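for the recovery benchmark. tokens below, seq after
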């Protein structure tokens, strides 16, 4: 065999060995890459904790609602709700919004100016905001950071709450009448006893409009609570996380959606 032939054979063998090494090297890199991206355990980013008439409520929704509870009118101490309370309010709100869509109540959508005005009132009047000086821009920004909130999320919360309150007013307040006898009875039996001996109570004609408003709101709240409870019983509400089950919080959480008298 000639020298040229031997050189060609050796060259082919070297080429095959080099190709094999390259292939093994590539396979090794692929294996390392696969091991690098393959998680050692599944990571749960979010999960469904309840279903309301086919609409899923996520664990992150409950966490966010608990943070937003600091803005609820009844939260005088600024403490956020428990996960159970937050879920119950989310269930109530979901049912109401589904009903709003069914009744096509588009006229109750607040404008951006109305939302901004409402937030301005809240910053000045909500007890927790008064304590934390939310009336100033600096105080408001600190308040948002402290409570894990953002301006867009607060804006969406206030808009949704205004829409729900307007729907309740439109649906239940019309046709409710308060008689003069009811006003007189409230004045004698409820208002006058609040004044100590020697204190002068305001005359009936001065406080009658406010008494009428209080009695009207009481009737609206009672009608709303019964309506919401009926909708929940008629619908399909399933809580998938046993730790979020509650025995008696629904009426409390539901009622908070209908109260428009607090800041």
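predicted aa per position
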């Amino acid at each position: 065999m000639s020298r040229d032939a031997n050189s060609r054979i050796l060259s082919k063998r070297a080429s095959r060995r080099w190709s094999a090494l390259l292939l093994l090297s590539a396979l090794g890199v692929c294996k390392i890459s696969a091991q690098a991206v393959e998680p050692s355990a599944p990571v749960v980013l979010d999960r469904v904790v309840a279903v309301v008439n086919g609409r899923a409520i996520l664990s992150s929704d409950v966490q966010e609602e608990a943070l937003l509870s600091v803005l609820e009118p009844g939260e005088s101490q600024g403490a956020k709700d428990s996960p159970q309370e937050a879920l119950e309010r989310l269930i109530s709100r979901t049912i109401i919004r589904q009903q709003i869509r069914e009744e096509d109540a588009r006229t109750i959508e607040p404008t951006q100016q109305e939302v901004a005005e409402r937030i301005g009132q809240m910053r000045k009047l909500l007890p927790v905001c008064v304590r934390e000086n939310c009336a100033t821009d600096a105080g408001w920004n600190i308040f948002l950071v402290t409570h894990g909130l953002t301006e867009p999320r607060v804006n969406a919360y206030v808009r949704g709450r205004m829409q729900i309150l307007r729907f309740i007013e439109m649906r239940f307040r019309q046709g409710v009448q308060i008689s003069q006898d009811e006003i007189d009875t409230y004045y004698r039996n409820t208002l006058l006893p609040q004044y100590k001996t020697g204190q002068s109570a305001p005359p009936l004609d001065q406080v009658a409009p406010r008494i009428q408003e209080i009695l009207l709101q009481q009737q609206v709240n009672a009608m709303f609570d019964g309506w919401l409870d009926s909708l929940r019983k008629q619908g399909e509400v399933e809580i998938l996380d046993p730790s979020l089950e509650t025995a008696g919080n629904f009426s409390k959480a539901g009622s908070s959606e209908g109260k428009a008298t607090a800041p």
